[in-house]
Design brief:
Blueprint lengths: L1 H23 L4 H13 L3 H29 L1
Helix pairs in contact: 1-2
Length: 74
C-alpha cells in the first residue's frame, strides 16, 4: 500500500509541477492541462494496451500484497 501511495504522490507532485511551469509561461489552465496529457493522445492502440496492462499489473500486485498481509495479521 505504501508503494501505491508513493507512486500516486509522485504523480500528483510531478503533474502539479508541470502544470505550474506551463502556467508560469503564460498558458491558461486548460491549455496547460492539454499540454500535460497530449502525449497520451498520440499513442497507438498497442502502446495504450501496454500502458494499461502495466498499470493493471501494478495495481493488482499492490492489492495482492495488501490482502496477503491483511490475512497474515488475522
Amino acid at each position: 500500500m505504501k508503494i501505491m501511495g508513493i507512486a500516486l504522490l509522485m504523480l500528483g507532485c510531478l503533474t502539479a509541477f508541470s502544470l505550474s511551469l506551463d502556467i508560469l509561461q503564460g498558458f491558461d489552465v486548460s491549455q496547460a492541462w492539454y499540454n500535460a496529457v497530449s502525449p497520451f493522445r498520440v499513442m497507438e492502440i498497442a502502446e495504450l494496451f501496454v500502458l494499461f496492462f502495466l498499470l493493471f499489473l501494478f495495481f493488482a500486485e499492490t492489492a495482492y500484497c495488501y490482502i496477503k498481509k491483511r490475512k497474515e495479521n488475522k
